[in-house]
Amino acid sequence: MSASDRVETKWSRLVEQALRRRAPILRDANTTALRLIHGAGDGLPGLVVEQFGEVLVAQLHEERLSLPQEAVRAIVIALARRRGAQAVYRKVFPRDRSASRARLDALHHAAAPWWGRPAEEEFEVRERGVAFRIRPYDGYSVGLFLEQRANRDRVRQLAEGRRVLNVFAYTCGFSVCAALGGAAETVSVDVSKRYLEWGRRNFAANGLALERHVFIRSDALDYFRRARRQGRAFDIVILDPPTFARVKGRRKPFVFEQQIGALATAAMEVLQRGGRLLACTNHRETTIRDLERIVRRAAGERRIESVARPKLPPDFPGDGDYAKSLWLRVN
Fold this sequence. Notes:
The chain is α/β, with parallel strands linked by helices. The chain has two domains: 3-120, 2-Layer Sandwich (Transcription Regulator spoIIAA); 145-330, Vaccinia Virus protein VP39 (Rossmann fold, 3-Layer(aba) Sandwich). Helix content is 34%, strand content 26%. The chain contains ten helices and 16 strands. The protein has a seven-stranded mixed beta sheet, sandwiched between helices. A five-stranded mixed beta sheet has the order 1-2-3-4-5. A two-stranded antiparallel sheet has the order 6-7. Strand 6 and strand 7 (130-134) form a beta hairpin. The protein is globular and about 70 Å long.
């Protein structure tokens, strides 16, 4: 057996172990979206595989892969067949960061899958019974960040009768869960009109009327300033900014470490006494202690009554720095 054959055999064994590790969530009939392979956390550096209904999405981080793409493809196809999937789409994170953006955009927006038959452009999955609309070839992201599953659950549990502000709302997953939990009002803020429309479809997928739920296309800091002028106050504020984002029509990109301090301060200024702030980041260089220090500084003289530091869901093993979140109750 060649060295590459031995590595491929080892990877196949590690895939089997990863599935066993996820047995409880795989048995949950109300959840059809989960992470099957979490890179080095499952002993498979460079490979991330998520399942969305009958579609697998494989992320290939080339600088960390120890197998050629064709060998990885064979392993992922075997996993897809095992899971009853009908298609696999791939998202390539190239070793050479100067690689053609146009070529990658074309790859990530192609309806033709890496394997299997083309999936619908948009389809529904479930997470603990909540419906979300997924677009598997809409770029790098497909519409749902699975690491936030437990936080979405908690928002749903806390939302009854409360006013909820969801900033950097993306496709409004937190807002949907707040509405399902009986929120008196949700406000979803994002710079992307397209993502907010996607969010509206997520509301419709769950049979939610929109009378008490508002979608606002705005820069986050601009919205915070407007909310203060209007005397708005919220019982729950969700602050989940990206690490980095280019905004169409703006010269400067959004950079997390440059703006998180101002964002946290602005969030505190519209948070009701006794309200809760959920602050999240997947910025690798910002530790959970860093994030807590930033948020405490933003609170100023307000007293923080409680802090919770949720762990990642069990399908994200072995990498606690992958994403961090804090729940704070602030007086």
